[in-house]
Design a protein that fits this description.
With 254 residues, the chain is an alpha/beta fold. The chain has helices spanning 8-23, 29-36, 40-52, 68-92, 177-186, 195-203, 214-223, 237-246, and strands at 56-60, 63-66, 99-103, 112-118, 121-126, 131-135, 144-152, 161-166, 189-193, 228-233, 251-253. The strands form three sheets. Strands 3-5-4-6-7 form a five-stranded mixed β-barrel. It has a four-stranded parallel sheet with strand order 9-10-8-11, with helices on both faces. Helix 1 (8-23) packs across helix 2 and helix 2 (29-36) packs across helix 3. The longest helix has 25 residues, at 68-92.
């Protein structure tokens, strides 16, 4: 594994390679120096080493391009950075941040609470459990309570995302209304992508929860344990699946 946080030189090498990839093929060493915070002479030396290592190829005066080997190195380094950031935000800061939950029973400030998720919302009730926190406010049942000092893991099964395609307006096909009816009856949340999708849902007397950012909404809801149906115009399916893949959420397209 490549640890770009191991030393300053490796981190600078990573940043310069990123700048080359972003600016290629016309590369201004002065602009890179300003962006990275080193001298132009240092940038020149780094680029020379990157060329020698096969990560960058020179195409002419001030013209460079990142090679496939350089791209692979960047991907590996970026993955390490992302994992470290996830560790900081989830493991380190997660225990000190304050979040909001719905109190299931009356809670007093400073009291230990057990955490769970229902209907996509964080919930808290007094007592110990597998996932706990400490209340930072008083709250009656049904009110919002502040929680910090998170420990343990909430037992949560990710939801499923099903994408149902409907034909675009230019098509002579009819939307599969029977399948839509069956699908929305069992879904926790229904989203629409495309005007034709909204129209198809309205034909079965069902209003979508949202018709904006359907993929992002579905990904967030599924991560909170909700089963989601996204009705999408054929032309919009790609945007929905891209958002789900970016969030590492599994889905099925029918």
């Amino acid at each position: 594994m490549i640890d770009v946080l191991d030393n300053k030189r490796t981190a600078t090498r990573f940043r310069i390679l990123v700048e080359i990839a972003e600016r290629q093929p016309a590369v201004s060493q002065g602009e890179i120096a300003d962006a990275v915070g080193v001298t132009s002479q240092a940038v020149s030396e780094y680029i020379r080493e990157l060329v020698e290592d096969g990560f960058v190829e020179k195409e002419g005066r001030s013209r460079y391009r990142v090679t496939n080997e350089g791209v692979d190195w960047l991907f590996g380094a970026a993955t390490d950075v992302r994992r470290f950031a996830d560790h900081v935000t989830e493991d380190v800061l997660g225990s000190v941040q304050e979040d909001a939950a719905i109190a299931l029973k009356p809670v007093n400030e400073g009291q230990t609470v057990t955490l769970s998720i229902a209907d996509g919302l964080l919930q808290a009730r007094p007592g110990d459990g597998e996932a706990t926190g400490v209340a930072t406010t008083d709250a009656e049942a049904g009110e919002v309570v502040g929680v910090t000092g998170f420990e343990g893991v909430i037992d949560l099964e990710p939801g499923e995302v099903t994408i149902l395609q409907v034909p675009p307006i230019r098509s002579d096909e009819d939307p599969p209304l029977d399948r839509l009816t069956d699908a929305v009856e069992t879904a926790d949340l229904v989203a629409a992508a495309g005007v034709e999708a909204v129209g198809a849902l309205r034909r079965i007397d069902h209003e979508p929860a949202t018709n904006f950012g359907a993929g992002e909404v579905a990904a967030d809801a599924a991560s909170r344990g909700l089963d989601v149906v996204v009705v999408a115009t054929t032309d919009a399916v790609g945007r929905v699946t891209d958002a789900l893949r970016d969030s590492d959420v599994s889905y099925a397209v029918t």
